[in-house]
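Q: Given only this backbone (258 positions), what sequence would you predict?
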């Protein structure tokens, strides 16, 4: 086991990363045997949350292996120097008339490239209800269509409808927005209530565009700051918010009232 971990740490170092091991030494404890990856500056890269590593060794190994495959593929992108060809002898035409050669064929038309999917941000509509329920389900929140439809009506009256992102009219992302007034701040506070982009549509900067749209919306309404909460186990989401310039400033508590 120790040799495997050492080999994994070496693999991480070869890719400019650092393997972080859990300090929990008691079997059956929550973080026992967990590992994660950070960059040289100590920022979370994979399998980490604020309290330390939460990843499995085999998941980290797969992550590093995929990085290695990409590095290997990039290393093949090298220039190839063509060999010099010997000059070919030009044959002379015979003195008598020759038969006409075949007519040159018409160049074939290149196949048209598929247009890139069109991305659009807009207010959520009641007809989006079923898709919104599916997106919320990806965050492991249990909600039904009737509740979502009812809440959309209330949010519309409050002027705080969530935004959805569409690719070729298919809803692939959702962000909730809210403005609140507090007694201890001179300006209203903006809040991102929920953010989710379906796995199939990631890699198009949809999350960034949704966050920037809500930031602009809050700024236009005089907010002095914007905040967001995120579950402890969503390490990738935490890394995304840090990349967007958000800082961790507090710990969230909640209590169910019913």
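A: Predicted residues:
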């Amino acid at each position: 086991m120790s040799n495997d971990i050492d080999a994994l740490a070496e693999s991480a170092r070869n890719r400019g990363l650092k393997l972080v091991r859990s300090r929990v030494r008691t079997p059956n404890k929550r973080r026992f045997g967990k590992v994660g990856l950070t960059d040289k500056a100590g920022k979370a890269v994979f399998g980490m949350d604020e309290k330390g590593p939460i990843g499995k060794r085999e998941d980290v190994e797969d992550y590093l292996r995929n990085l290695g495959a990409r590095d290997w593929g990039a290393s093949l992108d090298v220039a190839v120097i063509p060999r010099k060809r010997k000059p070919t002898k030009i044959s002379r035409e015979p003195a008598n008339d020759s038969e006409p050669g075949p007519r040159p064929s018409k160049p074939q038309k290149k196949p048209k490239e598929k247009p890139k999917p069109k991305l659009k941000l807009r207010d959520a509509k009641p007809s989006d209800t079923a898709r919104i329920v599916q997106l919320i389900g990806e965050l492991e929140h249990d909600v039904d269509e009737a509740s979502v439809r009812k809440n959309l009506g209330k949010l519309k009256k409050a002027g705080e409808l969530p935004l959805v992102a569409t690719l070729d009219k298919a809803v692939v992302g959702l962000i909730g927005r809210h403005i609140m007034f507090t007694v201890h701040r001179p300006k209203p506070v903006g809040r991102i209530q929920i953010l989710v982009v379906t796995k199939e549509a990631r890699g198009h900067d949809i999350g960034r565009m949704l966050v920037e749209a809500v930031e602009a919306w809050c700024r236009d309404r005089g907010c002095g700051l914007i905040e967001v909460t995120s579950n402890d186990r969503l390490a990738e989401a935490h890394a995304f918010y840090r990349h967007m310039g958000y800082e961790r400033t507090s710990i969230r508590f909640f209590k169910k009232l019913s």
